[in-house]
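Weekly sync, protein design subgroup
Attendees: M.S., D.O., the rotation student, P.L. (late)

Item 1: inverse folding check
M.S. brought a backbone from last month's batch and wanted to see whether the design step gives back something sensible before we order anything. D.O. pointed out we never logged the input encoding, so this time it goes straight into the notes. Structure tokens as presented (197 positions):
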């Protein structure tokens, strides 16, 4: 399985944590998810089997999620044990929207890969998940890492801005990207390739 959530012994242990210990533990978890979400390179989750609770949260912070139509399972079962998946819900809501997130977070429903694809939690469906992940990774390797990193940051940031601020932000990014070595080299290679056609 991909990740079926927190270890049972750990769950049994945290019920005895003090407020302070639970806050520290939550901060550590939040930092982990933020680190993955803000990682400068693309992150691919190849979900084989169950991605439940924190495992589903882990998939939702990745840039690309690949799953099997019926063998992969997704869901947030925390509500069934009186817990709130507060930290991971932030990323889920960003990824699939408030309405769809409510359904998963409040019902505890477990859905298959096909349904997860339909609601936007999964980006690619594949019979051979690892093969598809490798294919995607190879496709991404053809791109400028600097450009992809800036694109990830742009996508994260513009959704929190009003339209005027977003346009101003993107003008600055466009200006910066046009003055990078990656752009100069990429454009030269592209133009030379066109001349050879």
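Designed sequence read out in the meeting:
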């Amino acid at each position: 399985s991909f990740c079926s959530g927190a270890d049972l012994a750990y769950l049994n242990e945290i019920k005895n944590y003090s407020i302070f210990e639970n806050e520290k533990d939550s901060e550590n978890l939040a930092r982990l998810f933020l680190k993955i979400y803000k990682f400068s390179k693309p992150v691919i989750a190849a979900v084989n089997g169950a991605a439940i609770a924190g495992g589903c949260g882990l998939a939702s912070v990745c840039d690309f999620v690949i799953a099997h139509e019926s063998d992969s399972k997704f869901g947030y079962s925390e509500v069934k044990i009186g817990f709130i998946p507060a930290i991971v819900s932030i990323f889920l809501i960003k990824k699939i929207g408030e309405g769809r997130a409510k359904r998963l977070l409040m019902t505890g429903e477990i859905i298959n890969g096909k349904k997860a694809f339909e609601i936007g939690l999964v980006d690619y469906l594949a019979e051979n998940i690892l093969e598809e992940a490798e294919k995607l990774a190879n496709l991404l390797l053809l791109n400028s890492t600097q450009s992809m990193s800036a694109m990830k940051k742009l996508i994260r940031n513009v959704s929190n801005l009003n339209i005027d601020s977003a346009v101003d932000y993107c003008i600055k990014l466009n200006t910066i990207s046009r003055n990078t070595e990656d752009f100069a080299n990429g454009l030269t290679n592209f133009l030379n390739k066109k001349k050879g056609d």
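Discussion: The longest helix spans residues 19-37. Strands lie at 44-47, 50-52, 64-67, 73-75, 110-112, 124-125.
Action: P.L. to compare against the previous round before Friday.
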